[in-house]
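Intended use. Records like the one below are meant for learning the mapping from a protein sequence to its folded structure. Do not use them to infer anything beyond what is encoded.
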Amino acid sequence: NRVSAAISAEVKDDIIRRIRDARELLPFLLALSKEERKALNDIGQQGLIYTLDTVDGMNQFPETIPATFDKEEFIKDVVLLDNLDDIMDEVMSFYVALKDTYNQAGSEAMKSAGKVYDYLKKGEDENVSLREVVAKIGKRFEGQGKKKPPVNPI
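Structure written out for the chain above:
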C-alpha cells in the first residue's frame, strides 16, 4: 500500500472545524450558478497581473482617470483579488494533495475489496449465510457484464 494511514475522529472533526472557521473569516464568499460563472470575465494569473499593472498605471497617472471612476473600490477589488489568489494557491495545493491521497487510498481499497469479494464468493458454497452478503455486494456489478454487439439488420 502506498497509503497506509489513519485519521482519528478527533483529527477529522478538528480539520472540518478549521475549514468552517476559515469560511467564517470570509463571509463574502459566493456560490455562483453555472450561468453566472459563464458570464464572468475569465481571471487567471495573467488577469491578476493585468489588474495589478492597471492599478500601477492609475497611480502613476491619476490625471488620466475620470473623477467618476471609483478608484478606491477598484483598488479594494484588486487587493481582494490578490489576497484571494494567495489563499487559493494554498487551498488548491491542499486540495490536490487531498484528492490524490483520496484516489490512491480508494484505488487500494477497491483492489482489496475485490479480493475480499472473491473470497466471500468462494466461501458461499460452504456457508449458506454468505449468500445474502455476496448478493448485496454483487449488486454493484449489475449491468456491467460484457455488452452484446449490436444486431445489424440487413
